Model the fold of this input.
Amino acid sequence: MADEKDFVDMCAVCKQGVPKSDMVYQKGKVFHTQCFNDHGGSFPAPNHELNHMSSRTRIELVQLKNLMVRSEAEATVAKTAKAAKKAGKKPKRAKPKRSKSKSKKPKSRTKSRPKKKAKKSRTRRR
Ligand SMILES: [Zn+2]
Done:
C-alpha cells in the first residue's frame, strides 16, 4: 500500500510500479534498485537518443511557441505603430500631392513653346 503511494514510474525491466524509495533513474528510465542491479548493466539504452531528441524537440517546441507569441505581440505593436504613422502621414501626404498637380502644368514650359504645340506633345508623350 505504501509502495503504491510512492509510485514514481514503471520499471523498465519488470514493467511494474517503482516506489520512490526503491527507484533508480538510469539511461532515461526508471528501474527498481534490484532490477537495475540485476539487469541495468546489460540493459540496452536504445531510447537514449530518442529521449534526447524528444526532450530537445520539446524545448524547441517551447521556443517556437515563445517565438510565435513574441512575433504576434510584435506584429500587434507594429500594426498599431503603422496605424499611428499612417495617421500622422496623412496630412503630410496630401501636401506633396497638391504640389505635384501644380508642377504637372508648369508655366515655364508652356511659355517656352507655342501653346497649341505644347499641348499636343504632352499628350503624345504620355
Ligand atoms: Zn523492476
